[in-house]
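Kindly inspect this chain:
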Amino acid sequence: MPNSSSPGVNYALLDDFSVLKASGADALEFLQNQFTQDLNLVSAEQAQLSAWCNAKGRSLASFLMWRDAAANDCFYLLIKKDIVEPTLKRLKMFVFRNKVELELLNLPILGLWSEDKGLQYAPEALGGKGSFTVTQQNNQHWIRFPATGSEQRYLLIAGAHSMAEFNPQEVLPKSESFEYTLSDATFWNALDIIQAIAWVELANREEFIPQSINYDAIGAVNFKKGCFPGQEVVARSHYRGTLKRRAFIAYTSQNASDITVGADIFQGDRPNGQVVNIAHLPDNKGTWVLFETRLEAVDGSSDESLHLGSENGPELTVQAPPYPLEKPEN
């Protein structure tokens, strides 16, 4: 876990995320026909990752989706804020006569993480054991995010609050066993990168097929669910081809503050990959990168190291994702 400089529980307001709501009698069928995930696997207790592709199989958006505990035909979609407007506009183009309403919710989103066992002392709202398990109570949505070892990480959406009136201290569980420390949201984004969870954002929109950012490997693509936009391309890569590109994690302690999403990854004098997501930690604590590249760039067959942005850019220390990259059977 990147050093967030404080014991106990750290939290940050995740201003770079938004929540969409899809509701109505046809919401399930509508979303099922659009996304790579099987919506029947999405419940009020279990969230699922998904992509939305264009006709060429390139990812227009990525989501974390779950249902409302009180209304089974209501879905929530966590999405990067910089693509929420074009995504909402495009989704509405396909509604036609479907009984489904799509709206953007103005809700506070918090990330909480602990480098010790602090969150174990929180109330039952944090009771989910597996990744992306959901607990909904008191108009709050708690989602457990993947973490390493004994570390703990939760997303909290405060459903009864608007951004204008929001005070985090009013929704954080009270405890005498630990203290909360306001931290930088960049740490949360770095933790997503360390777990190799890719997010589609404006700078990488329509750049990658889901497999190139490991979405099949983390269960965000279901090849048995039926049709969705770009399915032919995505399925062909799965069933007929050999996957040659994947997403990997990297870190550099060198100054990389000028590097942004979409920058090239160099091996020698050749571009050999692209930045998917990047997190520049404050106080010169380094940069975490999720990047997409050809498998031979990281398989040890080359003596040339990888560099960020140019052949003389910051050198990257590469690590594999914390999950297998073999093709899933589904």
User: Anything to note?
Assistant: The longest helix spans residues 185-194.
